[in-house]
Amino acid sequence: MIRHICGKPLTIFGQFVVGLLFVLMPSACLAGTVLTVNQINIERFPEISIYLTIADEQGTPLKGLNASHFMAQEDGSIMRVDGVFPLEKGEEPLSVVLAIDRSGSMRGEPIRDALEAAKDFIREMRGIDRVGVVTFDDHVTVFSRLAADKGPLLKDIEKIKVGKDTALNDAVMKALQLLSPFTGRRAVVVLTDGKENRSKATREGTIQEAVRIGVPVISVGLGKEVDASALEAVAEGSGGRVFFAQASSELSNLYQAIARQLINQYRVSLQSRKSLDNGWHRLRVTVKTAKGKAEVERVYLATLKPVIGTGALEAYRKKTDRQYLMAIVLCSLAMALVAAIIVIAVVRAKIARRTRRSE
Questions:
Q1: For the CA atoms of the chain, what is the radius of gyration?
Q2: Whole-Å CA distances, 50 to 81, 179, 267
Q3: What is the 3-class SS of 194-257, one letter each residue?
Q4: Which among 81, 86, 37 is positioned nearest to 63, based on CA atoms?
Q5: What band does 350 get if pLDDT is binned at 50, 70 and 90?
Q6: How far apart are CA 29 and CA 43, in angstroms?
Q7: Could you give the CA distance from residue 318 to residue 107 in angstroms, rounded to a whole number?
Q8: Is 124 exposed, middle or buried (0-12, 13-18, 19+ CB in 10 A)?
Q9: Which residues lie across from 217 on neighbouring strands?
Q10: Which letter does DSSP use for residue 304 in this model?
Q11: Could you tell me if 281 and 75 are in contact, meaning their C-beta atoms sit under 8 angstroms apart?
Q12: CATH dotted code for 94-263
C-alpha cells in the first residue's frame, strides 16, 4: 500500500487516489524518487527497450543503478530484466527540439532569461547530441533544424524577438515533425508563459502524434497565466514531465536540470512473453533506490508497422477511461456503503445505551 508520496504522509483516501493515478500517469514520485517512462521501443521485439528518467525530488539524476534495482510486469506477469544501461557516456545520441514562446507577454526580461536558459541547456548537451529550436507566437518558425554542431545556434539564438499571440499546439506539432525522421532518444522541451489561442492543431491531436512517434513532451510553464492543466495533459499523455517556474530567473537552473535528466537516462531491456498481436499491452516498471521506491505504468501497441493509427489509440483510451471510471464509481459506492454501515452501527449503539439507561 502507498502511504507516502514525495515524502509526505497520505490519508487512506489519498492512498486510494494515488493508486488510481499510477494507472493514469507516466511518471511518479514516491519517497524521494521520481521515475518517468519517456519512451518504449519494440523494434527488436520480443525485446522491449524502455527509456527512463530517474531523479530525486530536487531533479538530480540518480546514478549507479543496475538490474537489481528494477522490476517490470507486462499485463500483470513478471518480465525478465535482461540489462540496465546508463546512457550518460554511451553512444546513443539524444535529439531534442526546444520550442520557445516568443509571444508579446515574453517581452523584456522573460525572453532574455528564456534564451539564456536555452543556451544553458545546449551547453549541457554532449558532442553527439542534436538540438533544434522552434519559436512561436501566432505563427511557428523553425529557427534551427536539429544538428550536432551547436556553435552556430549558440551565437544566433539571441536573434529571437518577441511577437504576438500563442500557437502552442502548433509549435509542439512542428517540433514533433522535426524529430520524426530520427530514431533513438528524442524529446521536445516546450516553454510558454501563456495559454493556447492561435493553433490549428488540437491538444488531443498533439498528444496522439507524440504517442504515435514515441516522443515525450517536457512542458515548462512560466508565471501565473499558464494553462497548467493543458501543460500537464500534454506532458503526462506523451511520457514527459511538467515543470513550473514562478519567475524567469528560475529558468536557467530548471533547463540545466532537465538537460541532465535527459542525458542521464537509463535504457532497460526487457523480454516480452507476448506476440505481435496488434493489441495494447500494459507495462508496469518499478525502481527501488536508496531514496525510495517508485513505479509507473505505460501502454504499448504490439506492432512493428511504421505508423500507429491514432484511431486505435483513441479507441483504447476510451475503453480504459470507461474501465477506470467504472472502477472509481464502484469504489466510491463501496466506500459510501461502508460509511453508511458505520453510521448505522453508531446510531444503534447510542439507542442501545439509552434503552439500557431507561431500564
A1: 23
A2: 11, 18, 6
A3: CCCCCCCCCHHHHHHHHHHHCCCEEEEEECCCCCHHHHHHHHHHHCCCEEEECCHHHHHHHHHH
A4: 86
A5: confident
A6: 29
A7: 41
A8: middle
A9: 188
A10: -
A11: yes
A12: 3.40.50.410
Q: Computed from CA positions of residues 233, 185, 115, 109, in that sequence, does the dihedral angle turn out positive or negative?
A: positive
Q: Provide the 8-state DSSP code for 20.
A: H
Q: Are 27 and 57 in contact (CB under 8 A)?
A: no
In angstroms, the CA 229 to CA 217 distance is 14
CA distance 78 to 73: 4
pLDDT in tens, 249-276: 999 999 999 999 999 999 999 999 999 9
pLDDT digits over 122-170, tens only? 999 999 999 999 999 999 999 999 999 999 999 999 999 999 989 999 9
Q: Which three cell numbers stand for residue 47?
A: 525485446
Q: Is the model more confident about 210 or about 348?
A: 210
**Lookup result for grid cell 431507561:** 358
> Is-contact 275 252, C-beta < 8 A?
no
Q: How far apart are CA 53 and CA 59, in angstroms?
A: 10
- Contact, 221 vs 242, CB < 8 A? yes
DSSP string, 58-116: TSPBP----GGGEEEEETTEE-EEEEEEE-TTSS--EEEEEEEE-SGGGTTHHHHHHHH
CA distance 211 to 253: 28
- 3-state secondary structure at position 264: coil
Query: Grid coordinates representing 251?
Result: 529558468
- Written as nine digits, the cell of 312 is 486505435
User: ∠ CA(42), CA(201), CA(122), 5° rounding?
Assistant: 65
Q: Which residue has the cell 513505479?
A: 295
As a three-state string, the secondary structure of 218-236 is EEEEECCCCCHHHHHHHHH
